[in-house]
Design brief:
Elements lengths: L1 E7 L3 H11 L4 E8 L6 H14 L7 E3 L13 H4 L21 H11 L5 E5 L4 H9 L7 E7 L15 H5 L1 H8 L5 E4 L1 H4 L6 H8 L4 H21 L9 H8 L4 E6 L1 E3 L10 E3 L11 E7 L1 H12 L3
Parallel strand pairs: 1-2, 1-4, 2-3, 4-5, 5-6, 6-10
Antiparallel strand pairs: 7-10, 8-9
Helix pairs in contact: 1-2, 1-10, 1-11, 4-5, 5-7, 9-10
Bound molecules: beta-D-ribofuranose and calcium ion.
The site of calcium ion has 7 residues, from loops.
GO molecular function: purine nucleosidase activity; uridine nucleosidase activity
Pfam families: IU_nuc_hydro
Protein name: Purine nucleosidase
Length: 310
């Protein structure tokens, strides 16, 4: 099994990613750490617990982390995810407890205690918690196996400004720390996730599972996809964050190449842009495996099969 920590700001697509991980015996989830992003921290940590309970896994450890980005004011995305961050299904208030430990301390402590090179970090939101952990204990950089993250975009452009994707835009300074850390990174940018569209026929497959998880997932996706459908006229909404977990389970679904990635932190116009040297026009070190394509049918088959186990 692969040991992972999921760092997240649920969010319907984060929720589906968490469900996919909880349904997969290949993954040992050491903890779920919440960060402020799509909605404020109070809601993201609660949403993470709601999803663990929906999956029937209340023993999962959920921690609360950073309340705001390193340097900038928090930007949220209620217009996409709704006021709760998880609009769509009616989910009961969670009864499982939030862990008392601060998420950043949990990340540091876990990486220092586990065998080096055995723990993968899976950030699905702004990179604040991960950057804070790297700053607090720089020794963890060499102990992390890899970071598989959802964020950024290149040929596809941005989704919050013309240049920037939401997760990187919300905390560009944190993203800069992560991309300079020397930890091997696998990056799922919008170029991949915009090819993982929910589509009505796919939502129906979740609903047809007939389980609580299947129906709640269909309800989450129906709420979530209306934003992209209305704004861009696309068939469904992009299932961003589950790409990260799917990569751990079936890396062959994705293709990309090793690149240098640098984050814009200076210019307001392009703040949070991921500058990806796809064509190796610089000699800057290749610090990330940047994905560009996905076998989206294979990806949805995996999702339906796994969520059907819960
Ligand atoms: C990312 O931003 C959030 O709204 C989603 O959960 C995803 O992590 C996509 O830009
Ligand atoms: Ca997210």
């Amino acid at each position: 099994t692969q040991k992972i920590i999921i760092d997240t700001d649920p969010g319907q697509d984060d929720a589906v990613a968490i469900l996919l991980a909880l349904a997969s015996p290949e993954l040992d989830i050491l903890g779920i750490t919440a960060v402020a992003g799509n909605v404020p921290l109070k809601l993201t940590e609660k949403n993470a617990r709601k999803i663990c309970e929906l999956a029937g896994k209340p023993e999962t450890k959920v921690f609360a982390g950073a309340i705001r980005p390193l340097a900038r004011t928090l930007v949220t995305a209620e217009e996409v995810h709704g006021q709760t961050g998880l609009n769509g299904p009616v989910l009961p208030e969670p009864t499982m407890k939030l862990q008392e430990q601060y998420a950043v301390d949990f990340i540091v402590e876990t990486l220092m205690a586990e065998e080096p090179g055995t723990v993968t970090l899976c950030p699905l939101g702004p990179l604040t918690n991960i950057a804070l952990a790297l700053i607090r204990e720089p020794k963890i950089a060499k102990r992390i196996k890899k970071i598989v993250l959802m964020g950024g975009g290149f040929f596809e452009g941005g989704n919050v400004t013309p240049a920037a994707e939401f997760n990187i835009y919300v905390d560009p300074q944190a993203a800069d720390v992560v991309f300079r850390s020397g930890v091997p990174i696998v990056m799922m940018p919008l170029d991949v996730t915009h090819k993982a569209l929910t589509k009505a026929v796919r939502v129906k497959r979740f609903r047809d599972l007939g389980t609580r998880v299947g129906i709640a997932t269909a309800e989450m996706l129906e709420f979530f996809e209306r934003f992209d459908e209305q704004k861009y006229g696309s068939d469904g909404g992009p299932l961003h964050d589950p790409c990260v977990i799917a990569y751990l389970l079936k890396p062959e679904l994705f293709s990309g190449r090793d690149c240098n990635v640098t984050v814009e932190t200076a210019s307001e116009l392009t703040m949070g842009m991921t500058v990806i040297d796809w064509w190796s026009v610089t000699k800057r070190p290749k610090n990330a495996l940047v994905m560009r394509d996905i076998d989206h049918d294979g990806f949805f088959a995996l999702l339906v099969e796994r969520l059907g186990r819960l």
